Amino acid sequence: TGYITIDNGFKNTGSTKSSITFLDGELGILRYRGYSIEDLAEKATFLEVSYLLIYGELPTEEQYKEFEYEIRTHTLVNEDMRKVFEGFPVNAHPMGVLSSLVSAMSAFYPDSYDSNAPADTEMHIIRMLAKLPTIATWSYKKSQGHPVNYPNNELDYCSNFLNMMFALPVEKYEVDPVVSKALNKLLILHADHEQNCSTSTVRLVGSSQANIYSSISAGIGALWGPLHGGANQEVIEMLEAIKADGGDTQKYINMAKDKSSGFRLFGFGHRVYKNFDPRARIIKKAADDVLSKLGVNDPVLEIAKTLEQAALEDEYFVSRKLYPNVDFYSGIIYRALGIPTNMFTVMFAIGRLPGWIAQWKEMRENKEPIGRPRQVYTGPTHRDFVSMTDR
Ligand code: CMC
């Protein structure tokens, strides 16, 4: 085994070449297909960015219309999937439900999974983008004891999602453009992030030529973890705990510094960014904008700012180059949009979907070999079997 190098956590191992996302962790630069995240978040729609990630170029007007039309006309989900969904308990975590239902899509839409049939692959891609928001809203509706809303294909992607989330059959509901614009921005900021844990999972599962639904369902499972996308839920819960504790941010800073506490400052630190996460910068500004436009006064925003400042001035965080990441302020915006805490990571999944798809597609098109890391064995050498009566 002398030839095998161990790199736990793949801190210094490249798994692939990729032309999708560029990230410079020292300089805090993030670009999708060469376009800066700042530009895209300000000027593009989420579907434009999805097209860019998946097909490599920004769409022309005609391409965009066709792409959007395809997605709009596939938003309905097979009605029998609802029966699968109805079997879940009311308090099931929406991430567990999402990952299960995406996996179930492989049973409901079993057309050829063969990557040599591009039309089929295309259809799977459209279906996933179209149906994920529909499925995601079911969990919320169930938690409220309300009937689910069917998609409304007159609406754009973000407004359709908001309508399915918040409209009730008994009263008029109109999507607030401030809310749909904010959602559009958040989804773009989450759309891809090169070989992170969930994306690597999608590529690894897909490398066995498993179908795209199974691959992405596995990615959703990886995203759920508190060290990855699940951090956005943890952040709000942490801020709430600080608030309940009388706003004592220093106590939490001290706890995060104390390794024996097992506590980490959620929304802080990143494997690649050793400087400000550019997404966090945009989101922090957006949080201020959105809350003031919506007239929301959320005391946890102040707590978040105090906590951030204290950490940025603390030797422990400075010396380890720990800065706020994408998850630090996003929950505060989601909350102002009316999205419940246990749905935050689901929002991340909806945003990350085009990235997962693009990375899965790239991996298949490049005909990458099956992912199969090696190990260094550390267990016992040969032992003779001992029968149960002699143990
Ligand atoms: N609070 C306290 N200490 C920290 C934190 C934190 N949030 N993050 C890292 N450290 C310390 C860590 O203990 C280690 O210290 P030492 O060198 O003394 O052993 C040092 O900083 C380096 O950390 P690491 O764990 O080796 O770094 P990593 O690259 O393996 O982990 C991370 C990256 C994001 C998992 C980690 O920073 C973390 O757990 N952060 C909190 C969870 C979080 O916010 N996750 C979201 C990540 S961003 C987007 C996403 O994926 O969703």
TrEMBL record:
The active site is at 270, 327. GO terms for cellular component: cytoplasm. Pfam families: Citrate_synt (PF00285). One of its GO terms (biological process) is tricarboxylic acid cycle. The keyword Transferase applies. PROSITE patterns: CITRATE_SYNTHASE. Belongs to the citrate synthase family. PANTHER family: CITRATE SYNTHASE. This is Citrate synthase.
